[in-house]
Amino acid sequence: MMHIDPRDTDVNSTRSSVDNVAYVVEQKDMPSSHRSPPRQCNDMLFLIAFLAVAGMTVAFAVQFGPKFIQETQLRDNPDTTGFKKVLNYAAMCGGASIGISLAWIVTMMFLGEFVIWASLFFMIGACVFAGIFMTKKLHEREAKVYWWPAPVFGLLALLITLYAVCIRKRVKFAAVHLKIAGNAIFRLPMTLIVALVMVVVQLAWAITWFLGVYGLFDHLEYIKPNHHCADPYSAAKCKLHVKYGPIVGLSVPMLAVFFWGAMVVKNIVAVTVAGTVAAWKVNVSTPLITLGAWGRAMTLSLGSICFGSLVVAILEAIQTVLNSISMVAARSGNCVAACIVGCLACCLGCIKNMVETFNRYAY
């Protein structure tokens, strides 16, 4: 489905650097019909569509965002209020996510095996606890079939235990690979810098999307705060007039746009790291490994990244809407509708996970 630049895969990582040079020379001497396809930007249509959609979102944010911020800001108040407060919280969450990500990488490097085993034991313990707790609660309510949680969760705990026994030798293998991958990343600090830059881009995209969407809704008067919302003396009378029909109708395409941009940024980082580690494994002395992989991800491979990200973004947007509908139905007491919509969202989530797996191998 994807066409990623072959530069990161046109050499065999199991060969030495000398053998790889010979391989490249051999490739050059081959007839043109037997050579690898030339490097080019594939899936240009999806790249153009993504740039158009991203540009439209930025235009909405610039044109309608400031007005919406002003309408939610309290007059004559030196403190940050309204939508500006939301932006401050978003910036703080972005900074916290960076720190947590770095801490998690270090943890997986040095405690990878412990984390894997701890996760397995936690799942087994959670199943045992759930079986005992639910059986006790049903017995206290004098239910006729109060005992059913015990065998169900007991069987689940047994299956997880058998799974842990079967993979016990692979846990060490996985932990070693996690350590090698972590060492590769920290030996190439430019990879972390690229990741931090893309986190900032991700945060900027989220803020731009929120400003654009809510600014557009405010401009179309789908969401309209009254004049009390900007008055510090009558803020208690603030009311938000919402037209739910048009908002729900625009939710799927606008959510698809948001998830598309987020997935593109995420997959650019994935392609960059994959290309960097592959080149580092073949030849450590290659200059500008990370910048080269990042440049290819941002140019030659960007069309394919946009293509794969679009499929996942559409599924993610539909799943989000279905989950919201299921939540509303559950709160209104319509358990049947909540169950049906929840099952649809679950099936859609399984399809989305499969597509993400395909994309991961393609990238």
UniProtKB/TrEMBL annotation:
GO terms for molecular function: transmembrane transporter activity. The keyword Transmembrane helix applies. The chain crosses the membrane at residues 44-66, 86-107, 114-134, 146-167, 188-217, 257-280, 300-322, 328-351. The keyword Transmembrane helix applies. Pfam families: Choline_transpo. GO terms for cellular component: plasma membrane. It is a multi-pass membrane protein. InterPro entries: Choline_transptr-like. Its main location: membrane. Keywords: Membrane, Transmembrane, Transmembrane helix. It is found in: Cell membrane; Membrane. Choline transporter. Belongs to the CTL (choline transporter-like) family. This is Choline transporter-like protein. It comes from Aphanomyces astaci (Crayfish plague agent). The lineage of its organism: Eukaryota, Sar, Stramenopiles, Oomycota, Saprolegniomycetes.
